[in-house]
Amino acid sequence: MKRFFEKYDLIKVAGILVLLSVILTWLIPYGYFTGTEVVKEKITRVGLTNFMQYGLLGIYYFTVLVTFLVVLAGFYQILSRVSGYQTLVKNISKKLKGHETLFVVLTTVVLSALCSLTSEYFPLLVFIPFIISVMNRLKINKLAAFSATFGALLVGTIGSVYSQKVAGVLNEVFGAVSIWYRVILFVVALGLMLLFILLNMKKNKSDKAFEEYDKFEVESYKSGKSARVWPYIVCLCLLAVVIILAYLPWTTWNVTAFANATKWVNNITIFGVPIFSYLIGTFVEFGSWDIFTIQFVLLFIILLIHWFGKVKFDEIIESFGEGFKKISYVLVVLLSVYAILIFSVMFPVIPVIVDWICGLAKGFNVLLASISAFITSLFGVEMQYVANLSGAYFATTYAEHVNALSIIFQSAFGLISFVAPSSAILMIGLAYMNISYKDWLKYIWKFALAMLLAVIILIAVMLLI
């Protein structure tokens, strides 16, 4: 067992937080906020049967994330066996040779910006295996590659400007805060992350220290002498365009072109019959896609590869099996993270803890509010649950400080996402690239500390204005 947890330390650290969320139900009563008051019920105590029942329930609630990762793994495993894609990755890597720093900077900036704007950040994971394959061939060290990809998504989380997963939720709870505060958070986080990445790349230039980290490394399954590259360039470019357009918040920006076009397509009739709606189903406009929808796009591209890339159906099935095997550890870690959420939401003791913390002072106290936001973010996993557990209480009780509270909760959630085993993106990335939790903390703690100081200064300015 000791060797198992040494090899799979992410399961251990996530499991510790799962157990802590269970133990708290034995010590603290079930509670919830109603207005400015907390309602305390009896101590619920999660027993062994409850543990198994609700642990499995997490698989049911978050099946969409599991299927998304399985489809994504199958997609890239198939591509890694196709000579055209192999040649594409090799050619791009050759062209970028000597420009590694520029490539890392551009990747970090683009992914961070997209994450801060898009309605869903999980679909952005579609880009990462391709980028990782290129970075691996360029011999960019593992922590720099992680920071430029998964770390960039974390930057977009703490610096969320329009993202419905973070900024959108906070706007619903606290009301719209000046966009410039969020832009400042984003710029500071991005600047610090780029600084840390570049310093790490400079420190680890030796090829001897390089460790392979590409799960879908292109292999010579077929000869690539006469490989056609352009179809895969077209597919990947179209996929990128679709993801960007589909998950940008067009409604928030008062852009109605996509909604109007989608409505027109859905209403096309032939002899009074809405033929497209009957044959294909109802189209969903760009800006309103969910995680299921992008999976259909990936599966459709796989069908195109099957038909025009002459990849046998048996090879596709085999590739899905190989892809599943490669990300099985990632899936276990993901479900462990969401088990934390399940117990925290189904047996909520966090509101009681937050009420006790806030009771240590009369009136609004920025330090106690920040501690409460950190604790709620640690167990909340996603911002919508953080808001449900304690955000609404703060918005009601301290209505005169909602602007500062919005930034406090965003910053706390963002900082927790960089370091806590309850951060889905962080843990998926660490598991995917086989980085230990200990190694990540050694690398990121200075960034987290610098970011914390920047947040303190920003909130102090907000309260003084």
Q: Which terms summarize this structure?
A:
465 residues, mainly alpha, 21 helices, globular
Walkthrough of the structure:
This protein is an all-alpha fold and 465 residues long. It has one domain (2-249, 287-464). It is 70% helix and 2% strand. It is built from 21 helices and two strands. The chain has helices spanning 2-7, 9-27, 48-61, 63-79, 83-96, 100-117, 128-137, 142-158, 167-174, 179-203, 230-247, 257-266, 275-279, 291-308, 313-346, 350-358, 366-380, 383-397, 402-419, 424-432, 437-464, and strands at 31-34, 37-40. It has a two-stranded antiparallel sheet with strand order 1-2. A hairpin with a 2-residue loop joins strand 1 (31-34) and strand 2. Helix 7 runs antiparallel to helix 8 (142-158), helix 8 (142-158) packs antiparallel against helix 19 (402-419) and helix 9 runs antiparallel to helix 19 (402-419). The longest helix has 34 residues, at 313-346. The protein starts with a helix and ends with a helix. The mean pLDDT is 86.
What secondary-structure arrangement, pairings included, does this model have?
Layout: H1 2-7, H2 9-27, E1 31-34, E2 37-40, H3 48-61, H4 63-79, H5 83-96, H6 100-117, H7 128-137, H8 142-158, H9 167-174, H10 179-203, H11 230-247, H12 257-266, H13 275-279, H14 291-308, H15 313-346, H16 350-358, H17 366-380, H18 383-397, H19 402-419, H20 424-432, H21 437-464
Antiparallel strand pairs: 1-2
